[in-house]
Amino acid sequence: MSNLSKYVMGGACAIALTLSSATAIKVFAAQPQVAEAGQPVDLTYAAEKAIPAVVHIKYVQNSKTKTIDVQDDPFGDFFDPFGFFGSPEQGQGGTRKQRVQTPKREATGSGVIISSDGYIVTNNHVVEGADELTVTLNDNREFSARIIGTDKQTDLALIKVDAKNLPTLPIGNSDNLKVGEWVIAVGNPYNLNSTVTAGIVSAKARGLGATPNGIESFIQTDAAINPGNSGGALVNTKGELVGINAMLYSQTGSYSGYGFAIPTSIMTKVVDDIKKYGSVQRVMLGVSGNDVINYINSQKDNGKDVDLGTNEGVYIASVDPDGNGAEAGLQKGDVITQLDGKKIEKMSELQAAINAKRPGDKATITYLRNKKPITKTIVLKNAQGTTKVIEQADIDVLGGQFRPITEAQKKQLNISYGLEVLKVNNGALKDAGINRGFIIQKVNDENVNSIDELQKLVKSASTSKEPVLYISGIYPSGKKAYFAVPLSE
């Protein structure tokens, strides 16, 4: 399961017709049913509750001009010694700048309405990089949508349409789900109204390693989650939202028995933080490790027998000396077994429990050292080492006015992109010594072509471990300059 190509994020899918069902849905009265042992489960109530609240999302990314580094032809100077066929930005050997046009891109996905005034939850990979988002409701009404906030680490996004009295899906507690419990997966992938598949909860707190640096504690189900169903709803028999459909595990790209959803226990925290703070508030435990059973098995493979006093929990491989884990007294070789009195059996459960915390929250950690339990209570800190809640900075923190450079400026300075600083007021730019007329070309090694791109980079940097913008660019005189612009006070 280490081959990441097997994990299919279904947001960007080709238009095709695939309607599947993992089981037949038996029709009874439209109310939640509890089946007796051995009897069929009625899922019609859940379907009727869910279908109106699941939407189709159309994603459009416009064609863009990008400047990339390309390798020079080593024989280029030999065949073209005077540069008749070269571009103005061509270098002598090594690499050169080349402008390329990216094609317009369209994709589709699903989303779930969680409030009657238009808030919709979907996957980050469904909306990331979109220039236009169009939401189609189950009754075929269409709305333009805007992104409120995204979170790559959980692959969740919150978008909004301007509407009232929309149908919603009540949010259930995914922690109460039991393995073997019936659920339905509802999506609207091809603008054909919602499709429903059914299955059971196959596993909980499943970690896959499919998203680097991601927070993974998936609900695994055999309800079919096909490409395009990403962002749709996983619903229990009571008609409650218990997960956001995220991906399938497949060798072929189509459903083959394994689907995964992000539990509402994670979703609720992400949505609340985005609405209140503009970004997800996180704390860092500051440890690395592995499931105890995986560690024991790896040692057996090396011919070593290890007795940690338990086969469950998280084995600690390293501890950041400045992190929360060190403050709790954790050391390499310890085994975390509980957080706030709740049993921790594997790393994905620890990740989910820590993800539910905010800076300044307390946590009681129980761990084994030499098979003996130790319990410590600490105040959790964020990646910047403080207990402050960090709100995303807006572009206004820079204290400047900007515009994309003109064609005349491109020609004069022999550049292909950038933002001109039109005015410098009190703010981060002035403090860093950036003057009017300076053309910003790169921020934190990312090309800057538009004000929207600068805004995204400011927001991203403001909540990172190092809230600094590393800005490079050029003045009208042709002089190049480089600045470090702190965003914190």
UniProtKB/TrEMBL annotation:
Could you give a GO molecular-function term held by this entry? serine-type endopeptidase activity
In this chain, substrate is annotated as bound at H125, D155, G228, N229, S230, L285, G286, V287, S288, G289
Q: Where is the active site?
A: H125 (charge relay system), D155 (charge relay system), S230 (charge relay system)
Question: What family is it from?
Answer: Belongs to the peptidase S1C family.
The protein depicted here goes by the name: Serine protease
The record places domain PDZ at 292-371
Q: Which PROSITE patterns match?
A: PDZ (PS50106)
* Record's keyword terms, sorted: Hydrolase, Protease, Repeat, Serine protease, Signal
Organism of this sequence: Prevotella lacticifex
